[in-house]
Amino acid sequence: MKKSLKSKTGFSFLEVLAALVILSVALIPIMTWVPTSIATKLKTERETSASFLCQNKIEELHYKLINNFTANYNATSVPFNSPFQDYSYTVTVDSNTTLKTISVSVWHSETPLKKITYYVKVADR
């Protein structure tokens, strides 16, 4: 008994090769998006944490200024406590006697040029 080549089932080498080419063309762009999305997630996470820390520090200083308007609260490159030890802040309080402007800048140690800065004005009561 002779078996015909046409009766065999399965994929030929050419069909498998064509499928692999189509898959690789489709997967390469997807694989390039993964590092970009990871970098974007990390950047957003850092900016959100810096914004949260900046808001907390400005609220803390606002409360301190209301209770003691004449104290000096200026600080330069002070690191936060754990778990935010990779973040630092700078506080600037102007020397006006009746209306002070508090400026707080927060940044991550790996991106010191990308600072989040908040301002608030506090009047002497």
Shape designation:
rod-shaped
Return the average pLDDT rounded to an integer: 89
Question: What profile does the largest beta sheet have?
Answer: 4 strands, antiparallel
In total, the number of domains comes to: 1
Q: Strand order across the biggest sheet?
A: 1-2-3-4
- What count of helical segments does DSSP give? 1
Q: Estimate the helix proportion, in percent.
A: 40-55%
Radius of gyration: 30 Å
Low-confidence stretches: none
Terminus-to-terminus distance: 108 Å
Structural class: alpha+beta
Number of strands: 4
N-to-C SSE series? Answer: HEEEE
- Percent in strands: 25-35%
What would you note in describing this structure?
With 125 residues, the chain is α+β, with helices and mostly antiparallel strands. It has one domain (13-123). It has one helix at 13-67, and strands at 75-79, 87-93, 99-108, 111-123. Strands 1-2-3-4 form a 4-stranded antiparallel sheet, with helices on one face. The longest helix is centred in the N-terminal third of the chain and has 55 residues, at 13-67. It is rod-shaped, with a radius of gyration of 30 Å. The model has no long low-confidence stretch (mean pLDDT 89).
